[in-house]
Amino acid sequence: MHTDRKKPEVTTAIILEKRITNKDKNKHPVKLRITYQRRRKYYTIKTKYLSINEFETIYYQKSRGKNKELRKKFEKIENRAIDIIDNVLNEFSFEAFEKEYLTHKKQETSIKAYFEEKASELDEVNKIQTAALYRATLKSLLEYDKNITFLKISPKYLRNYEKWMIDEGNSYATIGIYLRNLKHIINRAIKNRVVNEYPFGTDKDKYQIPKGKNTKKALTMADIEKLFLYKTENRNEYLALQYFLFSYLCNGMNMVDIANLRYSNIQDNSLKFIRQKTKDTTNTKVEINVYLLPEAFEIINNIGNENTKPDNYVFPVFSDGLSEIDKYKILKQHIKNTNKYLRQIANKIGIDGKITTYYARHSYSTILKRLGTPIEFISEQLGHQSTNVTRSYLDSFEDEQRVMHSSKLVDFEKKL
Question: Which of 109, 136, 216, 409 has the highest CB neighbour count under 10 A?
Fold first, then answer.
């Protein structure tokens, strides 16, 4: 019984059509029944004929195995019909219902179904982290509005959702990610003719996704020196520091790339790899070439696996035979632990801010820029597609540099 229906005058049910019998087996077809203004229509469900006992076992007893699968299938069909009736059709008629139900029979029309389908597609190609972000987006949207539908989404609705996200303590970066995911889902729905109105755009009556307001994530050279000089007997602190310093020394390599490194990636004094982030998103695979400093080799020797064969992982984060989901969970916990002990170290040596592994990447690029390194080199080493991306990446971390240089304009004690 669906008690929260928007159109309770239209009822749905999965029934066993006993008026039709398979004479050989005394079984009946399962059908979707729609009732409106005392009129009933039946829609065939493609499945095997069932006996009365089999149908009752599925619906009125605790279902297991194949019976449980059949019940889920029937519930999915009924829920799709309810979604069309409640959320797609402005006014109900059997003709309008059949146009949606029969023409797009395999197409789900709810936002939840669209997000779940997208996440499942990403799971199939092992993009586990991106799939998790789509699921997190859906969870957030349902927390904001448990009855969300495509029809509800307007520029005003999105502005209210953004305000709610801010009130809940989310960053603009997170808001941007979630709304870009929603934008992708709406584009899919428009392509499938489920949605007509497009709420996003640059016009004043449309909604613009906010850009992330970056906070300073780059350490100074003095801070980096403190980290290199820090000594500890705490094994967890030691490991966290080694992973951070290896990232800093190797082009600000992300933890996912460090975890996936194999000894075959090391060639003489160079480390060559393709970023996990971009390996499936671009046609041209850009190989990043890192010059391995002696300090980087020392870290590998101190905490790395044995180099007995080229396919061995360099670091003991992953092991062979893990599924992508297992790797995702292990990496997430690894980063969490590393960040925990990095902050512990930072508090001890006087580094401000909630330092994370990502600070290594920003510190690498920002320090090189401050030392006068060409932007083209930094861009290539970071694996960016263009120098414009690198400039945008660096500019937001240079406020203190602008202050320092501007103050020289009134520093009258220093005569030129």
Answer: 109
- The per-residue pLDDT for range 347-383, each reduced to its tens digit, is 999 998 789 998 988 888 888 877 777 767 666 676 6
As a whole number of angstroms, the distance between CA 389 and CA 372 comes to 18
Following CA atoms 290, 363, 226, 407 in sequence, which dihedral angle do they give, to the nearest 10 degrees? 140
Q: Give the integer Cα–Cα distance in Å for 283 and 281.
A: 7
CA dist 244 and 241 (Å) reads 5
| pLDDT tens profile 388-412 | 555 555 554 444 554 554 454 445 4
Q: Measure the CA–CA gap between 318 and 331, rounded to whole angstroms.
A: 8
User: In Å, what is the CA distance from 146 to each residue of 60, 132, 139, 141, 195?
Assistant: 28, 19, 9, 8, 19
Residue 171 burial (CB count, 10 A): 14
Closest CA to 130 of 217, 247, 272, 256: 256
SS3 313: strand
Single out the residue of 402, 395, 361, 368 nearest to residue 221, CA to CA: 368
Provide the 3-class DSSP secondary structure of residue 151: helix
Sign, CA dihedral 396-400-401-402, equals positive
Q: Does residue 343 contact residue 353 with C-beta atoms inside 8 Å?
A: no
pLDDT per residue over 27-64, tens digit each?
888 899 999 999 999 888 876 788 888 888 887 766 67
H-type alpha helices, 4-51:
none
Q: Which regions of 94-241 does DSSP assign to beta strands (E)?
A: none
Residue tagged 């669906």 (tokens): 2
Q: What is the model's pTM? A: 0.60
* Sign of the dihedral defined by the CA atoms of residues 98, 99, 105, 111, in that order: negative
Q: Tell me the C-alpha distance between 287 and 25, whole Å.
A: 64
Q: How far, in whole angstroms, is CA 3 from its chain's centroid?
A: 33
Around 408, how many Cα atoms within 13 Å sit in the side-chain half-sphere? 8
Residue 313's beta-bridge partner residues? 262
Hey, which residues does 15 pair with through a beta bridge?
A: 31
Structure tokens at 149: 């539908």
CB 357 within 8 A of CB 346: no
- Provide the β-strand partners of residue 262: 313
Q: Chain-centre distance of CA 199, in angstroms?
A: 22
Q: In the sheet where 30-36 sits, what is the strand order?
A: 10-16, 30-36, 39-44
